[in-house]
Amino acid sequence: MHKVEIGGLLSGGRSMDVEDEVPIEPFEGIAFEEPARVRLTMRYAQGWLEVRGSVQARAAAACDICLEPVEFDVRADVEERLDPSGDRELFGESNVLAGSRLDVADLAQQVLLSALPMGVRCEQHTTE
Ligand SMILES: [Zn+2]
Predict the structure, then answer these.
(1) Terminal CA-CA length for the chain
(2) With 0-12 CB in 10 A as exposed, 13-18 as middle and 19+ as buried, what is 36?
(3) What's the CA-to-centroid distance between 62 and ligand 1, angstroms?
(4) What pairs with residue 111 in β-bridges?
(5) 9 three-state secondary structure
(6) What spacing in Å lies between the alpha carbon of 118 and ligand 1's midpoint?
(7) Which residues lie below 8 Å from residue 107, measured CB to CB, with a gap of 6+?
(8) How far is the C-alpha of 123 from the C-alpha of 105, rounded, in Å?
(9) Residue 94: CB partners within 8 Å, gap ≥ 6?
(10) Would you say residue 41 has pLDDT above 80?
(11) I want to staple 63 with a disulfide (CB 3.0 to 4.6 A). Which of 22, 47, 76, 122 is the partner?
């Protein structure tokens, strides 16, 4: 389930591309009705797994002020370094990388959530 085996990459592959569509769990009133589109390029160099790419999703929520439904695109760039040896965990408690398996869904979820706006406003209540 949205896990990528990177053993080949770790044992001498040069780079690896991943394209996937993964469902995203709702978060604080923001729902993702369609799977997020994930594109990643992974490289293994000097003991680090470099993951670059982007995650895109369509989010649906309610305006904080009038509760009108609002839809918006969320796009997040991915630029992470992971430690395949597991000694340094950059994602806190998560298991984005477990052994030689990368959990694309978990990665996408975390990257997207970090890119969500602080508040949701409909067009009428957008202050800019
Ligand atoms: Zn509003």
Answers:
(1) 41
(2) buried
(3) 8
(4) none
(5) helix
(6) 15
(7) 38, 40, 51, 55, 78, 80, 96
(8) 31
(9) 106, 110
(10) yes
(11) 122
How far, in Å, from the CA of 69 to the mean position of ligand 1?
8
Token readout for 38 is: 């994930």
pLDDT in tens, 49-88: 999 999 999 999 999 999 999 999 999 999 988 888 765 5
Ligand 1 geometric centre to CA of 61 (Å): 11
CA of 91 to the centre of ligand 1 (A): 34
Asked whether the CA dihedral 19, 25, 30, 31 is positive or negative, the reply is positive
Distance from the CA of 71 to the center of ligand 1, in angstroms? 12
Question: Would you kindly state where each structural domain of the chain is located, as residue ranges?
Answer: 3-120
